[in-house]
Amino acid sequence: MEKISSSSTEGGGGAAAAAKISSIFIYPIKSCRGISVPQAPLTPTGFRWDRQWLVVNQKGRAYTQRVEPKLALVEVDLPKEAFLEGWEPTKTSYMVIKAPGMDLLKVSLIKPPEIADGVSVWEWSGSALDEGDEASKWFTNYLGKSSRLVRFNAASERRPVDPVYARGHNIMFSDQYPFMLLSQESLDALNKLLKEPVPINRFRPNILVDGCEPFSEDLWTEIKISKFSFQGVKLCSRCKVPTINQDTAIAGPEPTETLKKVRSDKVLRPNQKQQGKIYFGQNLVCKESFTEGKGPMVKVGDPIFVLQKVSSAAEAAA
Question: InterPro entries, from UniProt (predicted)?
Fold first, then answer.
């Protein structure tokens, strides 16, 4: 583990930033389209509004693009002011949902009164807030099978991340960790190997950075974004979703076939236990403890300072 000298990490004491944030993405409904925003409030479970909602089947199991690729075509919009510091929704604040061939659906951002028990996503199950019959009917019609829209119930539920990698951190309906970071240079390096380049939306990061070497983010174990400390806890292993074209909802073999050749554990971690996984991006947790009130904000253009890193992907946790 290489520790970078502290004089170079505070943004004015010497060395330049390792990269800067070029985009911030929020995905309010798991597996539906993301929103690109200029800034986002940090919360203990990730950016505010990220993966706060989930579409479930009649048994309460999560629908994701892995089994319902049509979710890729569902556009989600939130009020611009939802990303301002300290903003709270009123009775006229809505999440607006659109999809091909469907009427507009408006979902109030005021928390719904109904509880849905037995909601599950991967290893977790618990209760959630049910967004009601209109949303249920909309998603049922769109997917052609019984569906409900639920919201994470932060008042009563906790969903811890894997304590082996990051003890004491929680998420809402994200797959595994509160934040996922990717660099533009890593995407560019991959696209040079592909016959048809893929856009960043295939990989669904929260934070896109640029200005670093390709795959630098593999090595970052502790970084500062602006003045907030983040820990790089685990390389992001990839499922089927990057093979789904987010404009058509049609899956193909790429970029997974190419990633298998250049980003598999066999290639990156030849001496470690092989799990047959491919890696692209770095999972993060925020090490700050947040108090209610003045919310910390991360913005496009914020610098990334690397405090600690490993020397190769083989040394990174995965």
Answer: MoCF_Sase_C (IPR005302), MOCOS_middle (IPR005303), Pyrv_Knase-like_insert_dom_sf (IPR011037)
Taking the whole predicted model, whether its pTM rises above 0.90 is answered as yes
Strands laid side by side in the 39-43 sheet: 46-47, 39-43, 297-299
Exposed e or buried b for every residue in 189-204, given b needs 16+ CB within 10 A?
ebeeeeeeebebbbbb
How far apart CA 209 and CA 169 sit, in angstroms, is: 23
CB atoms near residue 276 (< 10 Å): 9
Task: Report the number of secondary-structure helices (H) and strands (E) in the chain.
Answer: 5, 19
Domain range list for the chain: 19-317
- Give 48-104 pLDDT, tens digit per residue: 999 999 999 999 999 999 999 999 999 999 999 999 998 999 999 999 999 999 999
Q: Which residues, in sequence order, are CB contacts of 167 under 8 Å at separation 6+?
A: none
Q: Which of 263, 262, 216 is nearest to 238 (CA)?
A: 263
